[in-house]
Automatic annotation (TrEMBL):
Residues 1-14 have a biased composition (Polar residues). The chain crosses the membrane at residues 88-111. It comes from the Bacteria. SUPFAM superfamilies: beta-sandwich domain of Sec23/24. Keywords: Membrane, Transmembrane, Transmembrane helix. Residues 1-84, 114-137 are annotated as: Disordered. This is Uncharacterized protein. Residues 33-77 have a biased composition (Low complexity). It comes from Arachnia propionica.
Length: 428
């Protein structure tokens, strides 16, 4: 006697054997899974006996009930001929399920689910590789677009990768720092690029805004080379080459560096000097070869420093009673006519106008050595002394001698490379 958990207890479609044990019927052969959720299809062979009504709602996986008046399971009763067809039926159901599953998968792949992102997975663009680096554009127009966009972003490295500069060019200013400083004053916007023209030496025309100005340019290519040939222009620094300058904060290696289109501020690296001219210099395109006149002048910091050192020394020299007051302008004790001057009796005086000239002295950079700043016009002064003539007569006298040493100011110079910034007085 089986327990309720016995696998043979109350199995459907069982026929009692001779000894009372049930022999399972309609159980799938080993290796074939039982259909899930579908009733076994009716065989397409013998029809049901006349007058038999189809049975609805019979349990799934069970065979049809016996015809009216027939008892199932009697010994010697012929088994319905569906056992031999059951593997084919199950196989067909499995195939149908597989086809249905493939259809559902295909539909999900095509349309996605409600939560899926229906857009395709982004692929690397022509100007960007899968690892985030830059790849060469596929067309000449694309090269020019990538070049100008790199300039607009301040990416000098990306821009350089798309051009072929002249072999002997000074590239020291083709850096992100220089380019980004330029963009603060003159951003590059509204880039428009045309299709290439020509075949052997194709050109590509483009336009963009540099600051508020619309600029047009034309870029050249050599044959099949997909790099722009020398789209750079030179920044002439010849007139200020005698001092150390910076361009947008970077030291150029030569006085003729090449630059991208942009805005360039030239400055002295010495706080006491400055570059004067039409600044910043705007290089509009690769064809902009205009030169800008630049000059060197003493900065306000340099003027203030110079006055703070020179004026006190000059005033001390004016106040001195000695023949040699300092300031590099000693006065001889004997005049040309033999008159002698008494030591300690010398008076040097300036009128109000001359005093104003002294207080507002402005030095200039040297022509040959701009880092030596010099001034000479400190305002005239008059000299008087106790004089003794050759005859022996003595008294107060005025000492006159146009251009004579000791009766006019010498140059007062300061070498800006001298850590002590010492004042040097000397006649030229």
């Amino acid at each position: 006697m089986s327990t309720p958990h016995d696998p043979q207890h109350n199995q459907p479609n069982q026929f009692p054997g001779p000894d009372g044990q049930g022999t399972p019927q309609n159980i799938p052969p080993q290796g074939y899974p039982a259909p899930q959720g579908y009733g076994a299809p009716q065989p397409g062979g013998p029809q049901q006996p006349h007058g038999q009504q189809p049975v609805y709602g019979q349990p799934q996986g069970y065979g049809p009930q016996a015809a009216h008046g027939q008892q199932a399971g009697h010994p010697g009763q012929t088994e319905p001929p569906r056992k031999k067809n059951l593997p084919l039926i199950i196989g067909a159901a499995v195939v149908a399920l597989a086809v249905l599953g493939l259809g559902i998968a295909a539909a999900m792949g095509a349309f996605g689910t409600k939560d899926d992102d229906t857009s395709p997975t982004p692929q690397p663009s022509a100007a960007e590789t899968s690892d985030g680096g830059q790849a060469a554009p596929n067309s000449l127009k694309g090269v020019v677009e990538a070049y100008l966009n790199a300039l607009a972003k301040g990416d000098a490295k990306a821009a350089l990768a798309l051009i072929t500069p002249l072999s002997n060019a000074d590239l020291s200013l083709l850096t992100d720092e220089v380019l980004k400083d330029s963009l603060t004053r003159a951003p590059i916007t509204d880039i428009q690029v045309s299709e290439p023209e020509g075949t052997d030496s194709p050109t590509v025309k483009a336009s963009y805004k540099l600051g508020d100005e619309v600029v047009e340019d034309e870029y050249k290519f050599n044959g099949d080379d997909k790099k722009i040939f020398s789209p750079l222009t030179e920044l002439g620094l010849h007139s200020v080459k005698k001092i150390t300058t910076t361009v947008n904060g970077v030291d150029p290696k030569t006085d003729n560096p090449v630059v991208f289109p942009g805005s360039y501020m030239v400055a002295s690296d010495n706080e006491y000097l400055e570059v004067e001219g039409e600044l910043p210099i705007l290089k509009r395109n690769s064809q902009d070869h205009a030169t800008t006149s630049l000059t060197i002048k003493v900065s306000q910091a340099g003027v203030d420093m110079y006055r703070s050192k020179v004026i006190p020394e000059a005033e001390a020299c004016l106040a001195s009673k000695n023949l040699d007051p300092g300031c590099g302008m000693p006065l001889g004790d004997t005049l040309d006519d033999g008159t002698t001057l008494a030591e300690g009796s010398i008076t040097r005086t300036q009128n109000a106008e001359a005093q104003s000239t002294l207080r507002n002295i402005t030095p200039q950079p040297g022509n040959d050595v701009p880092t030596v700043i010099t001034a000479r016009d400190f305002g005239s002064f008059e000299v008087s002394a106790t004089c003794t003539e050759p005859s022996g007569e003595s008294g107060e006298c005025g000492v006159i001698g146009f251009g004579k040493n000791g009766l006019s100011w010498p140059n007062a110079s300061i070498d800006l490379n001298d850590p002590e910034l010492k004042v040097i007085w000397e006649y030229q």
